[in-house]
Request: fold
Amino acid sequence: MLPACGGGGGAVDAGDEPGPAGTGHPSTALVVLVRSGGIAGTNDLVSVDASGVVTVLSNRAARPSTRTLTPAEIAALRAALDRADVAGLQRNYLDRQAADAYQYDVTYQGVTVTADEGVLPATLRPVVDILTRLIAR
Reply:
């Protein structure tokens, strides 16, 4: 279980996440995604700072990984975040009957939205898709 993920799909304060180089220092995260659950019980965290530096922590990896987004990738992420209107969303979209589903906590501009896979708001889906693709890299 990842200590930084809170262990149970709880919301994460972007200011508590590792710095851009995975130093463990508070960062100036642009956005943080925590993905937990699924059949395998995964815990993944993706933090992207304002300059496009990505830090990925996973209970399936021995150490954090980092990379830098291209200017086009950071522009696409920022556009998706703008369209998502995170501040205008409810804070929780939970499906109590979801079994073995992923739960996502997205923190942007100090607001955390928690959603189960099956009830993820359509406006938030592009943000989650972009960030979860970074886990696999």
The chain has one domain: 3-136.
